[in-house]
What does this fold into?
Amino acid sequence: MTVKGRIHSVETLGTVDGPGLRYVIFTQGCLLRCQFCHNPDTWKMSGGKEMTVQELVDDIKDYQPYFESSNGGVTVSGGEPLLQAEFLVELFTELKKLGIHTCIDTSGGCFSRSPRFMKTLDALMEVTDLILYDLKQIDDAMHKELTGVSNRHILDMANYLDEKKIPIWVRHVLIPGGSDNDQLLQRLSDFIATLSNVERIDVLPYHELGVYKWAELGLDYPLEGVEPPTDDRVKNAEAILNREKTIVLN
It folds into this structure.
């Protein structure tokens, strides 16, 4: 039986979701309820459009010349892509036959050490070149408040990716009054320093670009009134989180 993916939307020639020009697939469904989410319309598992691997590959092929000229490829984001890991195994297997770079943007929110999930995830990692890994909050209690779930399994997945030697780019959203705290940033930096597979650390300034979607869905926006961080605070966070990499380079 052909495995179908539930797809929210597609962005062609994206520039912020991995190296080079990217074909970005946004999957439908997510277990987290992040207070700053700019895609709350991806939360419901039943939304989106069902698509086959072949349908996506046929469209992706049109953009291969752009990937080849920019060292780009395909990124699957969400929602939470790993909720559809079996579909991603099939998709990435076909993309690797075409020599296309593959990337997943994930929060690790559905990670589990259960044998069934691990079997699928191990297979997926065999055809995955890069993980964009969202570490939203290092403090467990604050992570629960921010996202609705614990971060224990999320940190465990970071260790799993390290064990598998899968390259990752760590992403951290900087929220004034929340994650924009030097002590929390230092704790996060200390955790990142335990990982040997981190190629890059990106600080993503909190923004309000998705607030209108909350209103359209009839949802109360929990961070109402929170302003984006200043440039100085972003630079401060970058310096703290990249401290270990700076020490190594020096």
Q: What stands out?
A: The chain has a mean pLDDT of 94. The domain at 4-249 is CATH 3.20.20.70 (TIM Barrel).
